């Protein structure tokens, strides 16, 4: 509806500023994921503490993005695709904030696990899973910045790998617990960590789906290729 | 800044419409929590299926609230407290959506658990915990509608009870798993369920904190009274 190029470009300029904050936040969350996983593997208490404390800055950035996006709506009154874009920015910020929380939780649990005997090479497997998810999140954010529906669709597909890694770890933990009850407490922590990394993958997928909606105007047609409880290892163990 | 009473009341009218949707969404989420917990205790597959399918309607309502709140900002250009109120509505809707997801997950896990032997009276304990959280969520939403900072502060305090219930259940599950490895798979499900209910309590607390901020203009001064990993049973078991 707005044809004045000055008003239009003011919106674009404001949007770019908010998007720069999103990329900054994305970088912080990616670093937190990798650092937390590394702290777990190398039993680096200082690094874990750093991730734990660093989450406050991520939360503050989400607040700021939320407020600036709202101000953008109030000032520029965007409609149609522009409004949808700003709402997508808010959703991406919320998804990143959740991922930051999970990284913080990973760091806290790695501090607790540092006092327990190791369980096989599970910390190494978790670090590899975290690396996979970090790349997924990075590509999900890139697909937003570039409005690249193909890359977003690829992110959705690749989340399957993360689900498979989680399922494999879950079986591994069950085996360790059944073999030796002294592993149970550590495995409970490790299982939560694996589950939370898998959830970061889900958030990356959710970002990718927002991008597909933004670019194509339609949500992905096929059901999300997530391997959930109905087909996952839990229900198999349950004999369903 | 806006002094025209017509514009001011148009905002209030629009806000009330969005708030009605929030209360409707709250009612749906509360019912989902109670139904899912009951389905777990009575092994009612049909009820669990109903909760699982019902989550789509909760998700759709969040989308609608998000869109209407954005439209409200675009149309009425609220500032200061009014803008903060609309942003709070969006955050409450997002928190409710998460709680709906947890209820759905509870329902899915109860379907898997229906095929396994029961573990003590854990399903009864979980139902009581779910009831406590449902009341907490209800009061958090009421504190928003009534802009009641006292009720919101009470919700924050009462979340401690939920944390304690979770901690007690966690110890119970550990004991069952160590006593008999055949309980391990069921206990992993039950532990996730308990953790997710505890997270619903956290979301209720987050809503209460938004209300306190909205009413008093300041975030609660004392640190959130959450019993987290640092003082909880996990780290105690870890010898920290």
UniProtKB/TrEMBL annotation, chains A, B:
A GO-annotated cellular component: cytoplasm
Major localization listed first in the record, in broad terms: cytoplasm
Endpoints of the signal sequence: none
One biological process term in Gene Ontology: negative regulation of phosphate metabolic process
Keywords assigned: Cytoplasm, Phosphate transport, Transport
Subcellular location: Cytoplasm
InterPro entries with a match to the protein in the record: PhoU, PhoU-like_sf, PhoU_dom
Residue ranges of domain PhoU in the record: 22-109, 126-211
Gene3D superfamilies, alphabetized: Phosphate transport system protein phou homolog 2, domain 2
Entry function: Plays a role in the regulation of phosphate uptake.
Subunit and interaction comment: Homodimer.
Family stated for the protein in its record: Belongs to the PhoU family.
PANTHER family assigned to the protein according to its UniProt record, in alphabetical order: PHOSPHATE-SPECIFIC TRANSPORT SYSTEM ACCESSORY PROTEIN PHOU
Record's protein name: Phosphate-specific transport system accessory protein PhoU
Organism for this UniProt entry: Cereibacter ovatus
Lineage: Bacteria, Pseudomonadati, Pseudomonadota, Alphaproteobacteria, Rhodobacterales
